[in-house]
Here is the input.
Amino acid sequence: MKTLVVYASKYGSTREIAEFIAEKLRHQGMEAEAASVGAAPRARDYDAVVVGSGVYMGHWLREATEFVRQNRAVLADRPVWLFSSGPLHLPAGTESLDDPELQPEEIGELREAVRPRDTRVFFGALDPAQLGFGHRMIRKLPAGRDLLPEGDFRDWDDIAAWADGIARALAVPAA
Ligand SMILES: Cc1cc2nc3c(=O)[nH]c(=O)nc-3n(C[C@H](O)[C@H](O)[C@H](O)COP(=O)(O)O)c2cc1C
Here is the structure.
């Protein structure tokens, strides 16, 4: 069972989550590798695929969405998991990361297209020193800093538990 963990990441925090998931799967005795969508990995060379993206202004990064759209037929034929690395805190009106409000815009379409086993949202990370000009300006808007606080909010236990669930699902042959 060979698993691809493919990601789109602007500043690296989603990449590190993808690498961590691949590492976890390897610890469970599976063959797994993390690759950027930019490296154009071939989904058909893998038995299972995990796709993740950082979230910006409520959307997955375009290249992650395009990866799923372009590989739709291959992915629909394999076990697939989707994750988003997004909120830096729970916005007012939401009680947990399971709140549908926190799912990026395209998740409904992508779920429909590839029927993932699960779709998860993880807390992300923001280092202001890394931000490009446009993103720095957005943080300067009123409320920008409140909505986009500095810090690393990734919950590695939560991510590890999710990866272990993937390993368990892949270890059990489909009926
Ligand atoms: C300008 C900007 C806009 C963002 N917009 C959202 C958003 O709409 N929803 C969300 O959940 N997270 C948002 N985030 C937080 C990022 O998704 C988070 O920092 C994530 O970990 C980034 O992943 P990356 O480092 O892999 O690019 C935003 C971050 C920045 C800098």
About this structure: The two ends are 16 Å apart (CA to CA). The chain has seven helices and eight strands. Helices lie at 13-27, 62-70, 72-76, 107-114, 133-140, 144-147, 156-171.
